[in-house]
Design brief:
Length: 333
């Protein structure tokens, strides 16, 4: 089984944004050491407790401080940007870090309505235009896609020897069908979806059309929220920080960041929040290494996934790195 890392660069209550971004770089280096295939950074805008608004900036830093692990965005929120500029940025990264760069494409707002309006006056219009915008982006990444007449002599320089690999990220049948029709690899956000994921992934595979060169194939990553520790009890305690923070954010709180384990234990749950917490835990994988291995393997088999991408939010970066280490020892050694 291949494993990847999806990092949201969360800020803990004892950190500032600088420390959170430094922790992200440390995680990427650890992931490379442990044998993870890729490290992706999420894009968020003015969301309290999340430090990364510009993955491309962090990726240049992380790429320079690693040597083999694939790096990429998970995802570039395309409705905010011109496809040509996105192609320039990721071609630049792929030139600096040959055959290591992924370009995940998404359409979520990644922030508040105010942030969306500040970034783009036509966000919803561009969401509807996603299929055409993706095709335009692919024109600048892959010579197989013919350019529009006015773009025929235009290249997204510098043109790397190996192009960034595009992935479409989503949680819906619509995104799955689009990825399949364009012959793109697909990443399903299991950790953030209430939909029937395996059915959606199956629809992607059925809709998949090979590109003209015949080299593309239906490839699936499933992103899952995981907390692993030496014992189940330790994993449960560590996971509580992330769970309580999710409840706080749902109420418009949590702006101070991920609470400590002690702070999370002292949080007074309402009856409704207790039920919600139980539901959230069912969506996560929490346990000791053997339990996590069994559950990850089951999810992978259910989806028919080629790779599992793990998102882990903890208060302490040491707990996070240890979680990824224990999982790697079980599944990658």
């Amino acid at each position: 089984m291949r494993l990847g890392i999806l990092d949201q660069s969360p800020i803990s209550t004892n950190q500032n944004a600088q420390a959170a971004l430094a922790a992200s770089a440390k995680l990427a280096q650890a992931g490379e050491k442990f044998g993870y295939t890729r490290y992706w950074l999420a894009e968020h805008h003015d969301l309290p407790g999340l430090a990364c608004s510009a993955p491309e900036v962090m990726l240049s830093y992380i790429g320079a401080n690693t040597s083999t692990i694939r790096i990429g965005a998970g995802a570039v929120l395309l409705p905010y940007y011109k496809p040509y500029k996105v192609a320039e940025v990721y071609n630049m990264l792929a030139t600096l870090f040959p055959d290591r760069v992924d370009l995940g494409i998404g359409r979520a707002p990644g922030g508040s309505a105010e942030a969306s309006n500040a970034l783009s006056e036509n966000f919803l219009k561009q969401v509807w235009a996603m299929p055409e915008n993706i095709k335009e982006l692919l024109q600048f990444l892959d010579a197989e896609y013919p350019a529009a007449h006015e773009q025929a002599a235009l290249s997204a320089a510098p043109v790397p020897a190996v192009a960034p690999v595009p992935w479409l990220l989503g949680t819906s049948k619509k995104s799955a069908a689009l990825a399949g029709s364009l012959g793109l690899s697909y990443t399903f956000g299991h950790f953030m979806s209430e939909n029937d994921g395996p059915e959606i992934v199956q629809q992607y595979k059925l809709a998949f059309k090979k590109r003209k060169n015949g080299e593309s194939k239906a490839e699936v990553i499933v992103a899952v929220s995981v907390i692993c520790a030496e014992t189940t009890e330790q994993a449960e305690a560590i996971a509580l920080s992330s769970l309580i923070w999710s409840l706080q954010r749902a109420k418009g709180q949590g702006e101070k960041g991920v609470p400590s384990i002690e702070e999370a234990k002292n949080y007074e749950l309402t009856e409704e929040e207790t039920e919600k917490l139980t539901s959230m835990k069912e969506k996560m994988i929490i346990g000791n290494p053997q339990e996590v291995k069994n559950k990850l393997s089951k999810v992978s088999e259910t989806y028919g996934a080629d790779e599992m991408m793990i998102v882990t939010i903890t208060y302490d970066i040491a707990d996070k790195i240890q979680s990824y280490k224990l999982i790697a020892e079980e599944l990658l050694s």
